[in-house]
Amino acid sequence: MVIVGASLAGLRAAETLRAEGFTGRLTLVGAEQHAPYDRPPLSKQFLTDSTPADTALPVPDGLGASWLLGRPAVGLDPDSRIVTLADGTRLPYDGLLIATGAAARSGVIPGEPGPGQGVFTLRGRDDATALRAALTPGRKLLVVGAGFLGGEAAAAGRALGLDVTLVEAGAVPLERAVGTEAGAFMGMLHREAGIDLRTGTTVAEFRTAHVTAPEFRTATSSAVAEPGAPVGALTGARLSDGRTLAADVALLALGAVPATGWLAGSGIEAAGGVPTDARLRALFPDGAVVPGVVAAGDAARVPQPLAGGAAPALGHWSGAVEQGAAAARTLLLGEAAPVFAEVPSFWSDVHGVRLRSVGLPALGDTVKVHECDREARRLEVSYHLDGRLVGALTIGRTSRLAAYRRALAEYAEYVAAQHA
């Protein structure tokens, strides 16, 4: 068995293979040099704690795996069942799990300075380490995108004493993910924390310093830059609404794209993620199963029973865990493996409160607000599609999600049974 992707989904798959009796050769391939680590803390306590949080994932004793770290995969030949690595290594496989995750979207805003000049993305541990070093009190942080990652990073910057501006194209943060009601609640939390939240706009252009002097003006703006800023360093941005901002640190939180470019030429069309069937088996464009290949996590597009079999991009921690385990069972059992029917879930910690969601809130055509207490910082909403529950979200009311989860799980299992 070969697992390409040595992070959460890959590790959970390896653990499941061994737990369910696989005794053969097991190889994990990772593009990064790091052993498996947890990503959620990277936008939270890893940035704010005086000592960086330990993000390492525990690897069980006796896993008996070969680890090929810092050696990204560059090609797949499904006919010969061979994965090729960047160093020329060719790995034959009987079963293959694709779990290469996703990469941060970048390079989409004109004027973006080069590496080390003030603009960051946040996906891996090295990204977080670089961003952490830049978040020093007194600096001006610009976060582009008020989704979950952007909101968490903005909250971290504010907690560290930075002046923070959060720019969002939608009318409220998280509008597409959780709707107007919950998004407006999150916007309130950001503003109460002292974040300058700008909605209905985005960054049209970055501005950088072009000369070094005690005081100077940028080549594209009359705004005075920070004294002594190095050539090419970020000094600010122009928004699509025409306003300008000063900033010396910026984080692009514009979503992610599946890290599947290495599959070019394999016959699998995976630009939006590897398409799979209900058992996580990879599919060719004609719908045929790719022999011996499964996919899980952010690199995969897995049909969701709550979505009527559609495969939305989720990018949740729980999805990586559950799909990694399910894909491993499919490698062992094939057609006898259970149909995937887990209910998606997500959490986010911002400004001292915890947001939790279950199901697929973005699918809802109707939102019901059961509690909205801004003073107590509590929110409970449910999401419905054609009158059927498809998701729920709470802020400060985590215990109330259990009933929603049970109802969603019952429906997901019912739908999955129709495809077993």
TrEMBL record:
Cellular component (GO) terms are: cytoplasm
- FAD/NAD(P)-binding domain segment(s): 2-324
Positions of the Reductase C-terminal domain: 346-418
Oxidoreductase as UniProt keyword: yes
Q: Which cofactor does it need?
A: FAD
Pfam families, alphabetized: Pyr_redox_2, Reductase_C
| Any one GO molecular-function label of the UniProt entry | oxidoreductase activity, acting on NAD(P)H
Q: Which residues cross the membrane?
A: none
State the PANTHER family in the record: APOPTOSIS-INDUCING FACTOR 1, RIESKE DOMAIN-CONTAINING PROTEIN-RELATED
Give the protein name, as stated in the record: Pyridine nucleotide-disulfide oxidoreductase
Please tell me the species this chain comes from: Streptomyces nanshensis
